[in-house]
DNA sequence: CGTGGCCTTGATAAAGTTCAAGAGCCGTGG
DNA sequence: CCACGGCTCTTGAACTTTATCAAGGCCACG
């Protein structure tokens, strides 16, 4: 792994770490490759380490008894996942699957915890990461339980819009079926809501491309001030 | 704060810490008292530190625009809350209110992070705790989105039952209205489901007292194997 | 050019919410 | 000591939202 230190320093989790620590990390990291649709790990697998997405996309999801799935996260470049069992010391609580050709860095558990013990700044970065993830979950729980689907979609579109630089036009980088699952609904319902939003002049949809045409209207939906006719 | 080290060592977050570290913590902790119904902090407040419940009960909740609330957690003795914004360096993402006469320990942010820098084991304990909390959220999201309300209630009752020592009979320690919110529904719906479960012989309800009369039947509901007639 | 994946649309049914009203409980104050 | 007011909880009926089932369209890829 020749240029690994450079790659590592671009990962927010390792941001601001001194060169020496980055080199320590380099020594324990394992480069892994996954094709689209390939399983990274399954719920219940032993958590022997965690991953960081270097390239590609990974979805984390739960499966119900009847096989229905709920996507918990979709992670892209720079984002770590699977770190819960590293510290909680158990199994993975959900499934992970590459939804695109992906390159991942794998950090073995024992080597990593040893490193943390020696590096307070790494520990603090890790604490911040987990705290923020917790906060995201808080929001997700709020949305799943407080708002109806149009509101959740509106909120997600707003989130995506400024994630992508604040433009009014952007691409969905996941399939609409996956988006449905992420929002806690099914493709049929999502499709109808896209249709209604378009017809109301809130957005325009062209395949995976979304254009927001009524910022204020979307906002009203997202906050629950207004319903979708 | 004379016996603070003893109290601290009973908090899971600090369990197993060497005496010296407990004493360090003692030096920075602030004892606070809240009456029932009193606000601990509000959404958007600056996160200047985090809390641990020593005595009493605190609920963490979000308010929607229409004033409807969703309870995210209810914390009792030994449980920390509000630590997310401390590490992520943001504001409190939700409201906190004492729902009983409560005694809380407050840990100021700056002093605490300084301490972590010196104590790797403290950091590892915190990481484990946050990871476990994250895991719980995973389950909560799964439940909110994959199961219907009777299943969520059944799962919650089972959880409570062994939380309280595994007996078939126990008290709800929150109001049914609060329970409804915790399950992502409203009191009316919860009330009807209690009625149906009782009528089906799954449980018996007497005010806040619940008796499980058909363990297997509840289990089937909780896992989604069966629906409630 | 046909096949499979993904998306859309329609009809129907189930689950939950809303609105409205009433019952039970408890503390306060006359 | 009893009555009042304020809670929480319960019940009913109408309505809304979403899931389910079923079919058809579009597009990319072999």
Question: What is shown here, in short?
Answer:
Chain A is α+β, with helices and mostly antiparallel strands and 229 residues long. In chain A, 45% of the residues lie in helices and 23% in strands. Chain A has 2 domains: 4-136, Jelly Rolls; 147-223, Winged helix-like DNA-binding domain superfamily/Winged helix DNA-binding domain (Arc Repressor Mutant, subunit A, Orthogonal Bundle).
The average pLDDT score of chain A comes to: 89
CATH homologous superfamily caption of the largest domain in chain A? Jelly Rolls
Question: What assembly state would you assign to the polypeptide chains in this entry?
Answer: homodimer
Span between N and C termini of chain A? 55 Å
Strand content of chain A is 15-25%
- How many β strands of chain A by DSSP? 11
Percent of residues of chain A in helical segments?
40-55%
CATH class of the largest domain in chain A: Mainly Beta
Instruction: Return the CATH topology of the largest domain in chain A.
Output: Jelly Rolls
**CATH architectural group of the largest domain in chain A:** Sandwich
Order of helices and strands of chain A: HHEEEEEEHEEHHHEHHEEH
Q: What would you call the structural class of chain A?
A: alpha+beta
Q: Largest interface: which pair?
A: A-B, 48 and 48 residues
